[in-house]
Amino acid sequence: MIFGYARVSTDDQNLNLQIDALKNYGIDKIFQEKVTGAKRERPQLTEMEKMLRAGDSVVVYKLDRISRSTKHLIELSETFESLGVNFISLKDNVDTSSSMGKFFFRVMASLSELERDIIIERTKSGLDAARARGKKGGRPSKDVASKNLALKMYDSQEYSIPQILSASKLSKTTLYRYINERKG
């Protein structure tokens, strides 16, 4: 059987481009998800994996549709290989049914990981350089007045958490962080 897997990151995006390409390939069953690539929990991907048998193929539009993490992508390809399942990426011209396809896939995955590591190094170097010039990175801190208002309302025990959040314009996480900072 030939299985297709299509994923977009947000509800605002649509799967039409991927679905059309998979249908043109001749997919027997397509699994679709709208979930960010950062999440490992993907019910449709898990469901598809349960159905795979030796001789089947898994087809995706692009490699980043099945995984954003090189490690996860390699784990999936190893799972497919152990099951005797071919893995095909239409736009990346990857087809692991051949020796050259397997080799190319591994090289490409390694290059993707290298690119990610280089980006991380550049970002870290840029942040270090900015700090050396006295710049401070990260989100700007909430103003002291919002923090003080929220803590005063919390301490009075006259207001609910939603009321405190609405009045102070703080997030629940930020409010609880401020509360816990006082305890520590």
Summarize the structure in short:
The protein is of the alpha/beta class and 184 residues long.
Write a structural description:
This is Recombinase family protein. It comes from Lactococcus lactis. Belongs to the site-specific recombinase resolvase family. Keywords: DNA integration, DNA recombination, DNA-binding. With 184 residues, the chain is of the alpha/beta class. The chain has two domains: 2-112, Rossmann fold; 144-183. 57% of the residues lie in helices and 12% in strands. A five-stranded mixed sheet has the order 2-1-3-4-5, sandwiched between helices. β1, α1 and β2 form a beta-alpha-beta unit. The longest helix has 34 residues, at 99-132. The N and C termini lie far apart (58 Å). The mean pLDDT is 87.
